[in-house]
Amino acid sequence: MGTHIKPHSRRQFLKTTAAACSSLLLPGSINAFKRKEPIRLGYLPITDATPLLVAHGLGYFSDEGLIVDRPVMVRSWNILIESFLTGKFNLTHMLFPIPIWMRFKQKMPVKVLAWDHTNGSAVTVKGDSDIHSFKDLGGKRIAVPSWYSMHNLILQMGILSQGLKPVIKPQSARLAKDEVNLFILPPPDMPTALLGNKIDGYIVADPFNALAQVKFNARIMRFTGDIWKNHPCCVIVANENFINNNTVLIQKAMNAIVRAQAWCIKNPKETAHLLSRDGEGYLPFPKDVLRKVFEDPEKSEVIHPDWDVARIGFQPFPFPSATRFMIDQMKQTLVEGDTLFLKKLDTSLAADDLVEDQFVIKAINEMGGINQFCNCNLSQPYTREEVIEIN
Predict the structure, then answer these.
(1) For 253, how many CA atoms within 13 A lie in the half-sphere containing its CB?
(2) Confidence category of residue 4, pLDDT binned at 50, 70, 90
């Protein structure tokens, strides 16, 4: 089961891989449930979507008796959000702050079901840039994928830690030495904008950091998982009404997704191949770019080797401490638009209202427990302390 698979043998590769992982199969899942209407999945072309794509590619949804259309790739977060709200997609991944904004500002019935992945993002600059840490960002232009993103939160945490000031100004505006200008770019546009000197850097999900490293000799300034240890980034979301009307379906979908996460942890090279255009073509990138994501970061790029943090990880449980930290940070983060709704939120109540974790807990327990996914406190397996370090 190597990674050098010819295109005509993709299906055999998937069958062989799935068979090799039969020990991960959840009890009673095969042909246990049928739904006539297909489930529709949406995603961006980023590695954040990996569990959804792997669950589809290896037939884990089918093993649960679910009919799932091939996931639909879209270009931007705005398109994904609009498609989700209009019912085009039943399940999708979203940047964690987005459903917070949707539920409490827009009053939309969205629920977070699980973490899709951990870490998986970085601040990227040109290889010959004079930017080596957050203190070097004064007077620079940095792109983020969404105002409501973990990327914006962590970037501004770093900026403020150095006494700098995040601002939102036109790209052509003159900046003071202590100002860092932030603006939105869709992830696919970021590497070329950096290459063309339209921006000084960007913070985004992989593989757009790895792509710039491989193709443009760009440099990782800092991995986000090197700042907030094993942080959530994208989460699995569904409409609350859809969940309530399809609890059996949701449980089976979560079984498949959690099973896919376990497979990804054990098979990083195979994951890169499956997703790549050399494999099943879910992501429009060659496997050499994706393998850079799924394999360990270079030691020269890591600040905290003692943390033993992967460039991208797959831990599905939505730890409440992280949700609370996310909401509190959002209250302090500069974005365009009205943020009064955040100031009115009771953090603990909002965190409890946003997340529906019963399905993912059941799936994790049937997989053998959360220790399959992380080195957690086994006496209190569904609690943790958030670890942040910026320097």
Answers:
(1) 26
(2) very low
Answering whether pTM is above 0.85, one says yes
**CA nearest neighbour of 329 among 255, 264, 390:** 390
7-119+235-372 with 121-226: one CATH topology? yes
179-202 confidence digits (pLDDT tens): 999 999 999 999 999 999 999 999
Handedness of CA 82, 84, 85, 86 (dihedral sign): positive
SS3 call for 94: strand
Q: Is 390 exposed, middle or buried (0-12, 13-18, 19+ CB in 10 A)?
A: middle
When pLDDT is cut at 50, 70 and 90, the band that residue 375 belongs to is confident
Q: For residue 19, what pLDDT is reported?
A: 44
User: Which residue is associated with the tokens 């019912």?
Assistant: 87
- CA pair distance 338, 320, nearest whole angstrom: 26
Rounded Cα distance between 75 and 54, Å, is: 19
- Which CATH superfamily hosts domain 121-226? Periplasmic binding protein-like II (3.40.190.10)
Domain ranges within the chain, ordered by starting residue: 7-119+235-372, 121-226
Q: In this structure, is the dihedral angle defined by the CA atoms of residues 200, 204, 208 and 213, taken in order, positive or negative?
A: positive
